[in-house]
Design brief:
This protein has 126 residues and is mostly helical. It contains six helices and two strands, in the order ββαααααα. A hairpin with a 2-residue loop joins strand 1 and strand 2. The protein is globular. It starts with a strand and ends with a helix.
Length: 126
């Protein structure tokens, strides 16, 4: 990522351009942590639909919820971006809603708010 002619260094524990690693064989817990850290400092991840899809497969992971929220609230690099990320983010939110309370991560409210703010009024009722 370029800033004032200088290349930014990724934050410690983050992958620069983590979207490109969405289909890597890296173990999911490690990948989720790295991808979340990357999305926190990198606007508009490439391959955000793939990243959100992989995160959506882990409704008990707080990293997955935070990652999906970051992806959904960052600037979109293309018109189709929000559609792909939205469908995975909504699936993740719906999956957390059916978990037993003890297994439910604390962060889904942030994701719900991001969906509602984007116009998904049904997320407010979920």
């Amino acid at each position: 990522m370029v800033d004032s002619g200088h290349r930014r260094r990724p934050a410690p524990g983050a992958l620069a351009g983590a979207g490109a690693f969405a289909s890597t064989a890296l173990e999911d817990a490690a990948w989720l942590s790295l991808a979340r850290a990357s999305a926190a400092h990198t606007p508009a991840q490439e391959h955000a639909g793939l990243v959100a899809g992989r995160a959506a497969a882990h409704p008990t992971s707080p990293d997955a919820i935070v990652l999906a929220t970051h992806l959904f609230t960052r600037p979109a690099p293309a018109a189709w971006y929000d559609l792909e990320v939205r469908s995975h983010a909504r699936a993740l939110l719906d999956a957390t809603a059916v978990l037993p309370a003890a297994d439910r991560p604390e962060a889904p409210e942030q994701l719900r708010r991001a969906l509602v703010n984007s116009g998904d009024i049904d997320a407010a009722r979920a």
